[in-house]
Every structure is written in structure tokens, then in C-alpha cells.
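Morning. Coffee machine broken again, so started the prediction first thing and wrote up yesterday's gels while waiting. Chain of 556 residues, entered below exactly as on the submission form.
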Amino acid sequence: MLLSLAIRDVVLIDRLELTFQPGLSVLTGETGAGKSILLDALGLALGGRGDSSLVRQGAAQAVVTTEFDVPPNHPARAPLIDQGIDPGATLVLRRVLSADGRSRAAINDQAVSVGLLRTVGERLVELQGQFEQHGLLDAATHIELLDAFAGHPVPRAEVRRAHEVWQQAVRVLHDTQQANARAKAEEDYLRHVHAELEALAPRGGDEENELSHRRSGLQHRDKLVAAVTTVHGELAAERGAAQILATAARQLGRLAGELRDQAAPALASLDRALAEVNDALAQLAALARGEDGGAATLEQVEERLFALRAAARKHHVSVEDLPRLHQRFANQLAQLDQGETAIAEFTKVEAEAKHAYHSMAERLSAARAKAAARLDKAVMAELAPLKLEKARFHTALSRQPEEAWNADGIDRVVFEMATNPGTALAPLGKIASGGELARAMLAIKVVLAGASPVPTLVFDEVDSGIGGAVAAAVGQRLARLGKGLQVLVVTHSPQVAARGDHHWRVLKQGAGKSVVTTAEALPAAARREEIARMLSGAVVTDEARAAADRLMTANT
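Came back before lunch.
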């Protein structure tokens, strides 16, 4: 609901703040007082087109601020949440228009694009009489309005779910077909590369570091063998350490009796030394033969290392990632081998999901056809009292081609109308503007009062060219709308004005270049005087006051 409208430096308005209540609010005033300026300002705050001519002469910029009380789950909050903007308890929409034509927008004091401002504004207020292509004039909204009027949320929800299941099946099938097509296009390459990696059998992990370390050791083996051979020769040579120790041990071993006992410790030491030397000789001999007695040669290690590195460079991966690459190619080949089977399975799943969606959409379409007939009848019943008895309203329900099927079903819904006899039905947005269309919109809105989520309706020109009983009928319907929605109407009709729950009078003050437009809320006595003025003109007579009393009393 619109809580307030603050206007600064817009055309003839210097400073103006209006607060609004639920129900029907009427705005009256003499021709040229500036009632349309209020609507222009409101439209500007809701994201409408900005023109530098709206800026008050001599001012640097025009500023319009609106505040709305919006329920927690209202659709106007969704686009703000998507943009990371906290909707807060109320929504404050502001538009600043500079004299040079530049424009800025803000919601809850956060800068936003004019497009986002318009998106939010269209979900808060519907301006009838401005005739821009939104609200009822936007055919894209008609299918949702028809469904809300029909009151079949469950079938609609089922169709949405079925459509999502179908589209998911379409995506899976498409992805499988694409992957299979790519695999087939690269089949020869895949099989060749997979065979190379299969033969190479990369182990991953630290294999590259291990091979590099072994290669480094093997590259220095010649020096090791030479040193080992020299040491071994010196230890094992005639009169070498081994022979000297063995000879010394034999000599001490020949001693007998008490001498042998005295030499026993020395003999034990010689035996130990000889054993250590023999162990050293065995280890040196093993080193000379090779550390692991069958290890790969330097050539073999280098061949393996270089092959791994070459494969990694070829495929732009690390040696460590070669096993994963090998597995990926294996998976692609498996997918290729199984692709046709998978495509056949997913084709069946997609066909079943499509059939389920189409069956549910057909049920919804049948329900819509019945609801459309009821809607047409209800709107036609509202047209006659509004001096549109020769007008025709029709809900055009047509089937869309398969490529246009969507979460809303298989139908296209367009509200069509012909306001004059002999003219062809046309979408609402194609009808010439004016009082007839405004009254037609009123009739449709009365019927669809509970269908639209927009909480505030604004009517202009709805009483253009009518009076008497027709004006009373317009006022009656506006009052009915005001029972469930917030309705603002700019009117020249006393019959409409008398129906208002709240009354604002728009007037000019000052003279010459200092003329400004202002507005004032009217209490009961002032309302009587204003309605009397609307009845009699410049001179308010007692008869006009009495007539105003009758109108106001009849509507209480």
C-alpha cells in the first residue's frame, strides 16, 4: 500500500507531501490545477520515463519519494533480494531528475538502476490512464491473471513441476548427445592416446622424483665402482689387511698352555677385526656388482623418465596427473561405447516427461477455457452500466507451438476488446486511449480484483465524457475496488468524488511566476463544499450543497 508521496520541484509543485490511507482516495480540483502533475510525479518515482521538462523552472533537480507498506512475501521484494538489497519493513522509492535530463534512482537509500526501480514499481502500483504497456495492457500478465481468477493453483503448480522435470530430461539428453558426438569426432585420437598411455602405464605419485633420484645415482656409479675396486684390492691383496690379520691370528693360535691363556684377549680381538674386514670385503664386492643385484641400468631409467615427461608435455599436464588423464580417456571411450545405449534410455525418459507435462498442461488448458468463459461473462456484465454496453470483451486462448511451451503451460492468453460496434477485437494494449479504455480497465479490474498482486490502483480519465447514472456506476465500482485494494482516482465527477473514503483537493496558489500547485486533505465539511463546487461550477449555491449532501449521504 502507498503510504506517502513527497514531491519537490516538479513543474508547478514546490514542496508537497501527501499521506495515503487504505480504501478509495479521490483527487479533485479545477481544470489546470495540476492533478496530472501528481500522477506524473508518482509515475516518475515508480520508474517511468523522465523528462527534464518536469523539473520546476529555476530548480537544479526534481525529487520524488514514495513509501510503501509491503507484506513480507509480496512479489515486489523478490527483485530486491536478488540484487542483495534488504527490503526492510517498508520500501522507499526515490527518483532524482536533473535539469539537464540525467536521472538517478534509489530504493531504501541504495542506488539502483531505473530498470530495477520500474520492475519494483510495477509490482506496487498500476496506473490506469497513463497507458504505458504494463499492468493490464501488458499481454504477458494475462495468463497469470486468468489463472488467479480461475482459482486452480494446484494444476498450475503441477504443470510447473512437470515442466521442470521435462526440461531437466531435455538437458540430460542434450548433454549426452553432445558428449557422444564429441567422443565420436575424436574416436581415433582417443583410442590412439589411450593406447599410448596404457603402454606407458604411469603410476603417478612420486614416480618422477624416484626416477630422477635413481638416475642421479646411476650417473655417478662409475666413480663409486672405481673407489670400491681400489679399496677392495688393497684389503684383499697379498700382505693386505685381511692376510696380515689372518697370519697374526694363526701365530697366536699356535701358543699353548699358559701362554695361550695370556694371549686369548688379543686373539679374540684379532678374530673380530678379521670378521669386520671380511664383511667390508663382501659389501665392497656387492657394490661393485650393483647395489640391488639386478637394478635397472642408467639407460633404462632415463628412458622411462624421459617417456613420462614427454607424455606430460604432449598433453599439457604434470607427470603426476598422467594417471588421471589416462582414466579420463578410458571413461570417454567407455562413454563412446555405451553412448548409443544411454541416448536411447534418455530419449525414452525425455519422451515420458514430455508426455506427462503435456497431459497436465492439457488439463490446465481445459480449466482455463472454462474460466475464460466465466471471465468474459463477468466483464461484459460490468461494461453495460459504464456506458460501454456495445463494447465486447473476449479472453483469447490459443495453443502455442511446442518451442514456446513453458512453465505456464501450452497456452497463450490475451485479453481482447472492441469498444465500438463493427470494430474487430484487438488486444487491450492496441485500443485507442481515452475514457472508454479507462472505464473498460475499471470493469476488468472489478472482476479481477482478487487476482492481481498489485495492491494500489490509480485511475485517471475514468469519468471522462460521462455523468449522471454512468458516473454513479463508475463511483460504485471504484468504491467496491477500494474495499480490497488501495485506489486513487483523479476525477471531475461529483458522483465519483462522493464515493471516496478520503478526499484531496488539488489547487493553484499565488499569481504570475510564483504560482504553485498544492493539495489539501478535506474534512467532511470541506468535502461537501468541494462536491458542491463540482456540481454547480464557480458559484456554489445552496441547491448544490443540498445535492452534495444527498450524494454523500447516499453513499454512506
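The radius of gyration is 47 Å. Going to sketch it on the whiteboard this afternoon.
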